Predict the 3D structure of the following.
Amino acid sequence: MFEKLNFRDEKDKILRKISVDAKLPLSEDYKKLIDKMIKHLKYSQIEKYEKKYNLRPGMGLAFPQMGINERIIVIVHEYEDGKFNNYVLVNPKIVSNSSEMICAEAGEGCLSVNRDVEGHVPRYARVTVEGYDIYGNKVKIRAREELSIAFQHEIDHLDGILFYDRINPKKKFYTEDEMRQI
């Protein structure tokens, strides 16, 4: 059975708060919510379910978007057509990053922002993220390109930052010579 999730809108003050560390091990309720988040994100990326359940495509969610001010993120990455990797990180931190900056060619979107926002969001091309899995085991993930953007976007949510905060108001778009676009 599929349960469509509702996300906090950008006007909700919780999205501007800095989240507190989550306590480990996670509660059964949190684990169930994470399972629902994974299923929602996966279905939103599969066309037949996206249409059937009227979903906006999304790759990641952070607990503040669910109204919970704790440092937990979920990313569902389609690495090959119809094949997904699920990433759940508790108390994630970016511990290293590349000097190379990239941006999503079409710009970024967010399941909590129900409007189009034009502009490129500069992000690191590669990041290493450390945190914990749902059982409290330490995890280290090296992410590149699109996955790197997703981790940075979701970790921003934990710090009260929305993607459009990172768009330069004086230079909304970059040329390929200025920043590599993916």
